[in-house]
Amino acid sequence: MVGKDNLKTEDLNLCFEKLMMPGGSGFGKGGVKMECGAITEWKDIPMELLLQIASLVDDRTVIVASGVCRGWRDAICLGLTHLSLSWCNKNMNNLVLSLAPKFTNIQSLILRQDKPQLEDKAVETIANCCHDLQVLDLSKSFKLSDRSLYALAPRCRKLTKLNISGCSAFSDDALAFLARFCRKLKVLNLCGCVKAASDSALQAIGRYCSQLQSLNLGWCENVSDVGVTSLAYGCPDLRTVDLCGCVLITDDSVIALANRCHHLRSLGLYYCQNITDIAMYSLAHSRVKNKTANSLWESMKGMNDEDGLRTLNISQCTALTPPAVQAVCDSFPSLHTCSGRHSLIMSGCLNLMSVHCTCAVQAHRMATTFSHQAH
């Protein structure tokens, strides 16, 4: 069922025997033997022990184990909550169709693919059977259509993390429909979803998914300031936003994020060539405003350098000037340009070579002082 390289039942028996064997004694040839005869065969292993053993082996072995006997199947199907099938290079679709009706308590399901295998029927089966699903990765599922999102939306309302990056066939109507039902979403990866990530879909996300913390819109070329501004106003807890390759956005998007998303930690603006110094000064000024807004709290706990932006990618943003970027760097001590700690990424911007973080400046001063003392 899981490929010719997988463990056979007799190999699995040996594997579990080694896992359970204390010093190699006390086990008979035909199965498990424990003190007082409490367990005489593999099928008699208590569910708790079986699940503990299953947690020590890979997902392929767990699937094989679920087919050893009815008791094992029932125990594993009941207790298994996390499963990854990314190792499956072929027949993933059939595997999902077979497993989803059994593993109904799955909370995290990783179906990332190198080759597109999944079809809508498999996702529909997941939606019909796995109502406790919280984490779902369907990245690179090029064969999926809107049918999949329409199936997931009303049945998997507990979703908190969804990765559909590279699913280029999804439409914005289907994504907006999903947002109406999956209101607990905190992490959403739409990288490369050019058709799905439109301004209207982002408006729906901003309207319904107020708990969103991380959003990847990389290379979604139809996204404009209208969509990003809606997100900033509707999802104030956004912490990670990737707008790399969103060529239509302007300073207005960055200003909205700076003013509304006070917990913003990472911002990707790679190749957003309409971004100017105005956006940078808005980010720098947001630090001051956030300090003022939280002055009482900050006075109690002290200012932490880890607050505010920790990563900023402005590569290929060729309109930016050193003073504006330096202002951002000065406002957020966690942004680094020094060797080994690059979190302010400026590749392709030769005019920004003079921008340096605080520790880089201090290192230069120390080196200069040491040189003078040596002479």
UniProtKB/TrEMBL annotation:
Q: Which Pfam families does the entry link to?
A: DUF7885 (PF25372), F-box-like (PF12937)
Q: Name one GO biological process term.
A: SCF-dependent proteasomal ubiquitin-dependent protein catabolic process
Q: What residue stretches are annotated with the F-box domain?
A: 42-77
Q: Which SUPFAM superfamilies match?
A: F-box domain (SSF81383), RNI-like (SSF52047)
Task: Supply the name of the protein.
Answer: Uncharacterized protein
What's any one GO cellular component for it?
SCF ubiquitin ligase complex
State the organism named in the record.
Fagus sylvatica (Beechnut)
What the entry lists under PANTHER family is as follows:
F-BOX PROTEIN SKP2A, PARTNER OF PAIRED, ISOFORM B-RELATED
Q: Where is the F-box/LRR-repeat protein 15-like leucin rich repeat domain?
A: 155-291
Task: Tell me the InterPro entries matching this sequence.
Answer: F-box-like_dom_sf, F-box_dom, FBXL15_LRR, Leu-rich_rpt_Cys-con_subtyp, LRR_dom_sf
